[in-house]
Design a protein that fits this description.
This is Large ribosomal subunit protein uL4m. Residues 129-177 are annotated as: Disordered. Residues 129-139 have a biased composition (Polar residues). Residues 144-158 have a biased composition (Basic residues). This protein is α/β, with parallel strands linked by helices. The protein folds into 3 domains: 2-64, no CATH class; 83-126 and 181-289, 3-Layer(aba) Sandwich (Ribosomal Protein L4, Chain: A); 132-172, no CATH class. The chain contains 8 helices and 8 strands; from the N terminus they run αββββαααβαβαβαβα. The chain has helices at 2-17, 102-105, 111-124, 184-201, 217-225, 243-248, 265-270, 278-289; strands at residues 27-28, 33-34, 83-88, 97-100, 204-207, 233-237, 255-259, 273-277. The longest helix is centred in the middle third of the chain and has 18 residues, at 184-201.
């Protein structure tokens, strides 16, 4: 196999140098089998280019070319590149452009970090108020119910045991905290990954502001209906939430509003579309660039 590969690369070097190339089929002398001219199936390294170029015809032997054209994506995700996005509003008016910081909105996607952050959030928000009564906490007498011998029954010293009705619970839950520890840099990275995922999906919209003229719910319903492929929307404002917006979205289960300080990974994952204002983007970027206090 390696002999066939060596012959193919020798032909490639000759063609690049302008020397005449042997066009005969490459023969494997170990197995005495002829390989087809169209492709070499054993060359699967990602470092090889599989594009067929019009200018490269005659320079690259057909043994090294594949007949299948591979499509290249428009943008490679996770390269920490600054992104430019348009700014609009509820009326779909053009409000200019805004630059999204690459170290916040274009980081590599890691599902393991998202899993750790979501698990930390859900564990930390558990109330942990579950409680059961032990033997000393159950109400009842401490007198021995009957004598030790002579009754034919099992011996007992109290009626507050776990085997009796109204008795205690052994090894039951007690109030405690379910919170687990997670480093601050991992929590911050999880938020960056969640924001980058929405940008990669094209589900991050930047608005100039979230002000609406009235508190009518039908206005917000009409605004959301204009967003294509949207089922659940999360609106993030940079400062205090507008009173009209709060009243208009109160009865909509698929529209939620958060201030930028309350933006978190779990809320982003629960909504397929994320709408942020200019102030919210600036606040989040400032928070991500702030030094972590240890």
């Amino acid at each position: 196999m390696w002999g066939v590969t060596r012959q193919a690369f020798r032909r490639l070097a000759k063609s690049a140098a302008g020397a005449p190339v042997d066009r005969r089929p490459i023969v494997n002398h170990w197995t005495s089998q002829k390989f087809e001219k169209q492709s070499l199936p054993f060359i699967t390294s990602k470092s090889f280019c599989t594009y067929e170029s019009q200018t490269a015809e005659g320079l690259i032997p057909p043994e090294l070319l594949k007949g299948k054209t591979i499509l290249k994506p428009d943008r490679v995700i996770g390269k920490y590149r600054d992104l430019v996005t348009g700014v609009t509003n509820f009326q779909n008016e053009d409000k200019g452009y805004m630059v999204l910081a690459g170290d916040v909105f274009d980081v590599p996607i890691r599902k393991d970090i998202i899993h750790r952050v979501v698990r930390w959030q859900l564990a930390k928000r558990q109330q942990g108020t579950h409680s059961t009564k032990t033997l000393s906490e159950v109400s009842g007498t401490g007198k021995k119910p009957y004598k030790q011998k002579g009754t034919g029954r099992a011996r007992h010293g109290t009626l507050r045991g776990p085997q009796f009705r109204g008795g205690c619970t052994m090894h039951g839950p007690k109030p405690r905290s379910h919170a687990i520890k997670l480093q601050k840099k991992v929590r911050r990275l999880g938020l960056k990954i969640a924001l980058s995922a929405r940008v990669a999906e094209g589900k991050l919209l930047v608005f100039e502001d979230l002000t609406i003229p009235t508190h009518k719910t039908k206005n917000v319903v009409n605004y959301v209906s204009l967003m294509e492929g949207t089922k659940k929307v999360l609106l993030v404002n940079g400062g205090d939430i507008d009173k009209n917006l709060k009243l208009a979205t109160k009865n909509l289960h698929y529209v939620n509003v958060l201030p930028s300080i309350g933006l978190n990974v779990y809320s982003i994952l629960q909504h397929d579309t994320l709408v942020m204002t200019r102030d919210a983007v600036d606040t989040i970027v400032t928070r991500m660039h702030t030094r972590i206090n240890r």
